[in-house]
Design goal:
The structure holds 2 protein chains of 2 kinds. Helix content of chain A is 49%, strand content 11%. Chain A is of the alpha/beta class. Chain A is globular. Chain B has helices at residues 37-48, 105-113, 133-142, 150-154, 156-159, 168-178, 186-195, 206-210, 217-231, 237-249, 254-262, 270-278, 290-303, and strands spanning 6-13, 23-30, 67-70, 73-76, 85-89, 96-98, 101-102. In chain B, the strands form 2 sheets. Chain B has a 5-stranded mixed sheet with strand order 2-1-5-3-4. In chain B, strands 6-7 form a two-stranded antiparallel ribbon. In chain B, 44% of the residues are buried. Classes of the chains: A alpha/beta, B alpha+beta. Chains A and B meet through helix 1, helix 3, helix 4, helix 9 and helix 11 of A and helix 5, helix 8, helix 9, helix 10 and helix 11 of B.
């Protein structure tokens, strides 16, 4: 199984552990990932507002680069997944726009986006693109002691036209995959909420309240860690957790894991190799439990 | 559901002038074919003699008055099928007047604040004024809005009490005028958008998801208005910083992005930055190659000022 791989800016810098864990898990499971090293940022929600045609063309370029490598592109960030998915949909609905970008721009660099690429988040790959029997045979460390609050991220749930997996109000795909890797999941109220990441650079306080509220619900439900499917949510929950505590006047202290790190633990990869030490909130309790 | 079955509705009851706290009361109503939430409420009042307050007018998804929360989701009572078991509550993010009736004053005030009418300095010479479908596309979609406030009730930013953000419903109305080619007050609309907190939206799509009129609130209203604000220099330093980072490196350098976005305010993040540094989290990512950067620069030049 070979895939083009688009880690995104966050997993290439602040949350490098997410990229690192993904590569190790993929290697164990025989999933070949070829990183698109020359692909640009997906534009997040910013570039598509400030410079929509630039953003769209950069993503068309990414699609063209990916098609040179494989039929399918794997993302590990839900906002990358959303942006790439939306731009792909736009180019599918407006073939004349795709032709224009191909002829006027991409052809200068010997690139062409044919339109056959499939784009899937790692979570969705686990949910339906990988043989579960084979996956179970790779699990060497039981994680039954872990009570996980799954946090899939809005951008994997909405808009519905880009999400074929979950009811956005009662998501369960991430829970299912976490259980597949052997851990337990808890039901809690914050699962379909938003971590607030996208206001962090404008106004921090709503994000701190939103994230803190979610973590509080996770703790109340008895979770001993939160697993995220997106590096952005991870950053708010982990790096900003003490700021959330200050904003809400409460104590949280709950470790936050990337999906790939949880998978890695189940597959027997060590905490050091999964860079669990790179988190701000200590993760020792999860590993020692 | 079938006839002879019963609908169990747990309904939020609260009269702030008498009750110390809200309570939930359970009502059983015989199911009728094609029963809607509104029919359930009617049955509770008319057949059981309960003095329950709820608001509705047209009953056919036009007036936008009957918004309620059913099993956690904001819906129109007149348009939502009854479920066997329902928790029915008032719309979230609004003060409760009584039972299921909320106070819409905050929305009405914000609405008058955005000057919700077309404004132009000079009349179009002659009649009729020719406008193409293409020119009207942005505003036309938003004319479907019935101001039911379901989007605002779903907004997580308001849920945490962040009222610098006026909420999605107001921005839909602002966008309806700002995107109308006949409106001649782009600069004013841009500063109104800034005042309405257009950059405080978290892009979570909760509003788009619940709109009974299927308006893509984020894609068709909030982000276009944010673009208008940015292009007229009403806020958006963080958007400019993002664009510069992608243009220069092909990707985001999180540290410089945060510093350029927040300016001097970044200094208060020093303790956090040190904590991140200690965990190796501040390493600048591997940027794309020089050659790729040149390609990206060429693309930037070719796409400048072009609309997709």
């Amino acid at each position: 199984m070979k895939f083009a791989y688009f880690p995104g800016c966050s997993a290439r810098s602040t949350t490098r552990e997410c990229d690192h864990a993904t590569r190790q898990v993929a290697a164990r499971l025989g999933i070949e990932l070829e990183e698109l090293g020359t692909a640009a940022c997906c534009g997040s929600r910013d570039l598509r507002v400030s410079d929509p045609f630039f953003s769209l063309t950069l993503n068309a370029r990414t699609f063209a680069l990916a098609e040179q490598v494989a039929d399918e592109l794997v993302t590990i960030c839900s906002t990358c997944q959303l942006n790439l998915g939306q731009d792909q949909l736009q180019l599918r609905r407006r073939p004349e726009l795709r032709d224009r970008i191909n002829h006027q721009i991409l052809s200068r660099f010997g690139l062409r986006y044919e339109g056959r690429l499939r784009i899937r988040h790692l979570l969705w790959l686990f949910a339906e693109g990988y043989d579960w029997g084979k996956l179970r045979r790779h699990i060497v460390r039981p994680l039954g002691h872990l009570k996980v609050a799954a946090f899939p991220c809005c951008h994997l749930l909405r808009p519905r036209e880009l999400n074929g997996y979950d009811n956005p109000h009662e998501p369960d795909t991430l829970d299912m995959v976490i259980r597949l890797f052997g851990a337990e999941t808890v039901e809690y109220g914050g699962q379909a909420s938003c971590c607030g990441f996208h206001t962090l650079r404008v106004d921090e306080r709503p994000a701190l309240r939103m994230a803190g509220g979610i973590l509080q619900e996770a703790k109340r439900a008895g979770a001993n860690c939160v697993v995220t499917a997106s590096p952005f949510c991870h950053t708010v929950f982990d790096v900003y957790q003490s700021a959330s505590e200050d904003e809400l006047g409460l104590k949280l202290g709950i470790p936050i894991l990337h999906l790939s790190q949880l998978a890695g633990l189940a597959l027997g990869i060590t905490a050091d190799d999964l860079l669990l030490s790179r988190h701000v909130v200590p993760t020792g309790s999860v590993v020692q439990l | 559901m079938g006839v002879n079955e019963r609908v169990l509705a747990r309904v939020f009851r609260y009269d702030p002038s008498h009750d110390a706290a809200p309570r939930y009361e359970a009502y059983e109503v015989p199911y009728e074919r094609d029963m809607r939430v509104l029919d359930v409420l009617d049955a509770i009042v008319e057949d059981q003699g309960v003095s329950l307050a709820y608001r509705w007018f047209c009953g056919v998804k036009r007036c936008g008055m009957c918004g309620v929360t059913v099993n956690g989701r904001p819906v129109l009572a007149c348009w939502e099928a009854a479920e066997p078991e329902m928790v029915i509550e008032p719309l979230a993010n609004f003060p409760v007047l009584r039972d299921l009736v909320v106070e819409r004053d905050a929305f009405d005030r914000s609405l008058s604040g955005i000057e919700p009418y077309l404004q132009r300095r000079t009349a179009h010479p002659g009649f009729p004024e020719p406008i193409t479908h293409g020119e009207m596309e942005g505003a036309y979609h938003l004319m479907d809005c019935i101001e039911c406030l379901a989007c605002t009730a779903a907004c997580p930013v308001l849920r945490v009490g962040w009222h610098r953000f006026a909420g999605p419903a107001v921005l839909v109305q602002l966008a309806k005028f700002a995107l109308d080619p006949r409106d001649g007050e782009a600069v004013k609309r841009a500063s109104l958008a800034l005042e309405a907190g257009v950059y405080d939206c978290v892009s979570c799509y909760a509003c788009s998801d619940v709109c009974p009129q299927e308006i893509s609130v984020l894609d068709r209203a909030i982000e276009p208005v944010r673009r208008l604000a940015f292009r007229h220099g009403a806020g958006g330093t963080h958007l400019q910083a993002f664009r510069e980072s992608v243009s220069a490196l092909g990707m985001i350098d999180p540290v410089s992005l945060m510093m350029k976005s927040r300016g001097l305010k970044s200094l208060d993040k020093l303790p956090l930055a040190l904590k991140m540094m200690a965990r190796g989290k501040l390493s600048r990512g591997h940027a794309v190659s020089q050659e790729a950067c040149r390609e990206i620069e060429v693309i930037r030049g070719l796409t400048e000022g072009v609309e997709p």
